[in-house]
Amino acid sequence: MARGEFQHQVLVGGKMNSLHLGQVFNDTARRLRDLYSTLQSSEDRLRLVIDTIPAYAWSARPDGSVDFINQRSWNLRVDLWRTCWAGIGLLLHSNDLTRYVGEWQAAIATGEPMESEARVRRMTGNIAGC
To answer: What pTM does this model have?
Structure first.
Protein backbone atom coordinates (compact mmCIF):
# COMPACT_ATOMS: atom_id res chain seq x y z
CA MET A 1 0.00 0.00 0.00
CA ALA A 2 2.91 2.36 0.68
CA ARG A 3 3.74 2.23 -3.04
CA GLY A 4 0.25 3.30 -4.08
CA GLU A 5 -0.94 -0.23 -4.78
CA PHE A 6 -4.42 -0.46 -3.32
CA GLN A 7 -5.80 -3.49 -5.15
CA HIS A 8 -5.02 -5.92 -2.33
CA GLN A 9 -8.02 -7.46 -0.62
CA VAL A 10 -8.35 -9.64 2.44
CA LEU A 11 -10.48 -12.77 2.11
CA VAL A 12 -13.40 -12.24 4.41
CA GLY A 13 -14.55 -15.24 6.39
CA GLY A 14 -14.05 -17.12 9.60
CA LYS A 15 -14.64 -15.74 13.07
CA MET A 16 -16.52 -12.51 13.60
CA ASN A 17 -13.43 -10.48 14.62
CA SER A 18 -11.54 -11.66 11.52
CA LEU A 19 -14.56 -10.93 9.36
CA HIS A 20 -14.83 -7.38 10.70
CA LEU A 21 -11.06 -6.79 10.41
CA GLY A 22 -11.10 -7.97 6.79
CA GLN A 23 -14.01 -5.68 5.95
CA VAL A 24 -12.26 -2.72 7.61
CA PHE A 25 -9.05 -3.46 5.69
CA ASN A 26 -10.89 -3.74 2.37
CA ASP A 27 -12.84 -0.54 3.00
CA THR A 28 -9.66 1.31 3.99
CA ALA A 29 -7.82 0.04 0.89
CA ARG A 30 -10.71 1.22 -1.30
CA ARG A 31 -10.72 4.68 0.33
CA LEU A 32 -6.94 4.98 0.03
CA ARG A 33 -7.14 4.04 -3.65
CA ASP A 34 -9.72 6.78 -4.23
CA LEU A 35 -7.68 9.35 -2.25
CA TYR A 36 -4.53 8.41 -4.13
CA SER A 37 -6.33 8.85 -7.45
CA THR A 38 -7.59 12.28 -6.37
CA LEU A 39 -4.10 13.26 -5.22
CA GLN A 40 -2.59 12.16 -8.57
CA SER A 41 -5.18 14.19 -10.43
CA SER A 42 -4.49 17.27 -8.30
CA GLU A 43 -0.75 16.85 -8.78
CA ASP A 44 -1.21 16.60 -12.56
CA ARG A 45 -3.31 19.79 -12.60
CA LEU A 46 -0.77 21.64 -10.45
CA ARG A 47 2.11 20.57 -12.72
CA LEU A 48 0.15 21.80 -15.75
CA VAL A 49 -0.42 25.18 -14.09
CA ILE A 50 3.23 25.51 -13.04
CA ASP A 51 4.42 24.47 -16.50
CA THR A 52 2.23 27.07 -18.22
CA ILE A 53 2.84 30.11 -15.99
CA PRO A 54 4.88 32.80 -17.76
CA ALA A 55 7.77 32.48 -15.31
CA TYR A 56 10.87 30.39 -14.73
CA ALA A 57 10.22 28.28 -11.65
CA TRP A 58 12.31 25.66 -9.92
CA SER A 59 12.89 24.30 -6.47
CA ALA A 60 15.82 22.66 -4.77
CA ARG A 61 16.52 20.49 -1.76
CA PRO A 62 18.32 21.85 1.31
CA ASP A 63 21.65 20.62 -0.11
CA GLY A 64 21.11 22.77 -3.22
CA SER A 65 20.35 19.98 -5.67
CA VAL A 66 17.52 20.90 -8.03
CA ASP A 67 14.44 18.70 -7.54
CA PHE A 68 11.88 20.46 -9.74
CA ILE A 69 12.09 22.57 -12.89
CA ASN A 70 9.06 23.85 -14.74
CA GLN A 71 8.91 23.38 -18.50
CA ARG A 72 9.69 27.02 -19.28
CA SER A 73 12.88 26.84 -17.19
CA TRP A 74 13.87 23.54 -18.76
CA ASN A 75 13.41 24.97 -22.26
CA LEU A 76 15.40 28.09 -21.40
CA ARG A 77 18.83 26.58 -20.99
CA VAL A 78 18.77 22.83 -20.66
CA ASP A 79 22.57 22.76 -20.75
CA LEU A 80 22.74 24.91 -17.61
CA TRP A 81 20.35 22.70 -15.66
CA ARG A 82 22.46 19.66 -16.51
CA THR A 83 25.41 21.30 -14.79
CA CYS A 84 23.16 22.39 -11.95
CA TRP A 85 24.27 25.85 -10.75
CA ALA A 86 27.66 25.93 -12.51
CA GLY A 87 26.31 28.23 -15.23
CA ILE A 88 24.13 30.51 -13.09
CA GLY A 89 26.21 33.53 -14.11
CA LEU A 90 25.18 32.97 -17.71
CA LEU A 91 21.54 32.56 -16.77
CA LEU A 92 20.91 35.59 -14.54
CA HIS A 93 21.25 39.29 -15.30
CA SER A 94 24.53 40.62 -13.93
CA ASN A 95 22.74 43.25 -11.77
CA ASP A 96 20.79 40.47 -9.99
CA LEU A 97 23.51 37.83 -9.85
CA THR A 98 25.44 38.90 -6.71
CA ARG A 99 22.29 39.35 -4.62
CA TYR A 100 20.78 36.09 -5.82
CA VAL A 101 23.92 34.02 -5.27
CA GLY A 102 24.29 35.55 -1.78
CA GLU A 103 20.70 34.60 -0.92
CA TRP A 104 21.26 31.11 -2.35
CA GLN A 105 24.47 30.56 -0.37
CA ALA A 106 22.83 31.79 2.84
CA ALA A 107 19.90 29.41 2.32
CA ILE A 108 22.24 26.47 1.75
CA ALA A 109 24.36 27.38 4.78
CA THR A 110 21.42 27.79 7.15
CA GLY A 111 19.02 25.25 5.66
CA GLU A 112 16.33 27.94 5.65
CA PRO A 113 13.88 28.13 2.74
CA MET A 114 14.57 30.76 0.09
CA GLU A 115 12.26 32.50 -2.31
CA SER A 116 13.66 35.07 -4.69
CA GLU A 117 13.22 36.74 -8.04
CA ALA A 118 15.86 37.64 -10.60
CA ARG A 119 15.90 38.67 -14.22
CA VAL A 120 16.86 35.89 -16.62
CA ARG A 121 18.94 36.31 -19.77
CA ARG A 122 17.80 34.94 -23.10
CA MET A 123 20.08 32.54 -24.97
CA THR A 124 21.25 35.61 -26.94
CA GLY A 125 22.44 37.26 -23.75
CA ASN A 126 19.57 39.76 -23.68
CA ILE A 127 17.35 40.00 -20.64
CA ALA A 128 14.19 37.90 -20.87
CA GLY A 129 11.12 40.08 -21.14
CA CYS A 130 13.00 43.08 -22.54
So the answer is: 0.53
